[in-house]
Amino acid sequence: MTEQDQEIQLLLAKKLVQALEINDEVAADEIFSEISGSRESALFQEVGRLTRQLHDSMNNFSLDAKMTELTANDIPDAKERLHYVITMTEQAANSTLGVVEDLLPISNDLNEKATELSDKWDRFLAKDMPFQEFKEMSGDITAYFLQTKNDLSSVQTGLTDILMAQSFQDITGQIIKKVITLVEDLEKGMVSLVSISGGQLKKKSKNTDTAELPGPVVPGVDDKSNDVAKKQDDVDDLLSSLGF
Amino acid sequence: MKILVVDDFSTMRRIVKNLLRDLGFTNTFEADNGKTALPMLQSGDFDFLVTDWNMPGMTGIDLLKAVRADPKLAKLPVLMVTAEAKREQIILAAQTGVNGYVIKPFTAITLKEKIDKVFERIEG
Q1: Closest residue of B to A162, CA-based?
Q2: Which residues pair with B28 in a beta bridge?
Q3: pTM for the whole thing?
């Protein structure tokens, strides 16, 4: 409150006391409303100032393109990306489990037959086998070799499939890293929102990261435009068009 | 054949190494980004480089540039195996002198095809 304000209020107070002493209700009422009026106008001025400041700050804030982009595009994108992570991990788990389920009976069967043949072979070595049974065993052994060869090649294929299924980890890792960056950006945005309401807007620090790479193509998010290769064939076509 | 596999994800390095072993290449080495790969390439007589693109420290494209700029390494065959699939990136890699480009996720067959093609072209 300025000195001048103080003088005016003191004067008003004295007038109010005089009016009350002479019982002049009309004058007293007038003085009352004058006092509270000056109070209100100061309050209104302060509220007005704060509102303007908040408005300006909010304007600056929404002009921050990064923030607009975050809410309009990046967050819905992040949801899509995380869904894709679920899809990829699910696919990897299913294909791994599928291969294991296919291979377990094969390995069981080979094991059982090997045990059976090895028992017979022991009896043969102990000279405890009639010739007729030996002839049968020879046929069984021949068949077993053939089966082993075929089955082991299925095992080999299955193992390669399991190996390839693990490649999800690289892709999902890259996608999740991107979402983490988004969450960090969002956190910074929230912090500056809080500092706006505290009356002090900090300049947003510029992202100093080197040129960002787009990373894995997430179906439904990154393949909307025509400037990405959706599959290996697209890459091959592009490279051959360049004379590769 | 001595091969260097460069990727920041160890899972992917293991996958590529295993696939290479399936194809008969057993003399393989690993690096986790361009920075660690370059000195290995400069001091070891590698015959083939398989590299990812997006890696912290030094990216695959920068590694490729460094390889092409080094007179001793300039002719080293380089296969890029990466999730980066933008047309402009593929074109940039081609212009920088990559010998093959495989996008992730890839299949064992694709990798084999591209490796065969790289060597076919070099021998042919």
Answers
A1: B15
A2: B3
A3: 0.69
